[in-house]
């Protein structure tokens, strides 16, 4: 996927956030089934959500999958803490926030760092 240069960072961020929501929701479906004693019917939307996650990561404009996945890690961590707060009603503490900020900074360095032509 080719993204227009001025919008590439914002488009990539949107794709990463969408992927994170899809991955977290898919994994949470399995968590709900196995840890919260929910119905096995939770697995169907969970698997669909995980497939959406995998598809979205292929939309990142990167020459190498490993680099796209590494940059995704920081966004995933921050999104997981948002899930913790918004869905599970547990407010992240300052150490969660500091750790996530470090990871997001690292993801930005990986994603936006200059590469030799």
Automatic annotation (TrEMBL):
Q: Which species is listed as the source?
A: Iodidimonas muriae
Q: Which family does it belong to?
A: Belongs to the UPF0060 family.
Membrane disposition:
Multi-pass membrane protein
Where it mainly occurs, coarsely classed, is membrane
Protein location: Cell membrane
A single Pfam family, by name? UPF0060
Q: Name the UniProt key words of this record, in alphabetical order.
A: Cell membrane, Membrane, Transmembrane, Transmembrane helix
Write the protein's name. Answer: UPF0060 membrane protein
Query: Mind telling me which residue stretches traverse the membrane in this protein?
Result: 12-34, 40-57, 69-86, 98-114
| InterPro entries, alphabetized | EmrE-like, UPF0060
Highest taxon of source: Bacteria
């Amino acid at each position: 996927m080719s993204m227009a240069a001025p919008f590439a960072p914002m488009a990539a961020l949107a794709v990463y956030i969408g992927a994170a929501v899809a991955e977290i929701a898919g994994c949470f479906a399995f968590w709900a089934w196995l840890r919260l004693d929910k119905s096995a019917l939770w697995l169907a939307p969970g698997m669909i959500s995980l497939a959406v996650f995998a598809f979205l990561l292929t939309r990142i404009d990167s020459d190498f999958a490993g680099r796209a996945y590494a940059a995704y890690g920081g966004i995933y961590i921050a999104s997981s803490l948002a899930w913790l707060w918004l869905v599970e009603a547990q407010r992240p503490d300052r150490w969660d926030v500091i750790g996530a900020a470090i990871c997001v900074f690292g993801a930005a360095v990986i994603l936006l760092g200059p590469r030799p032509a």
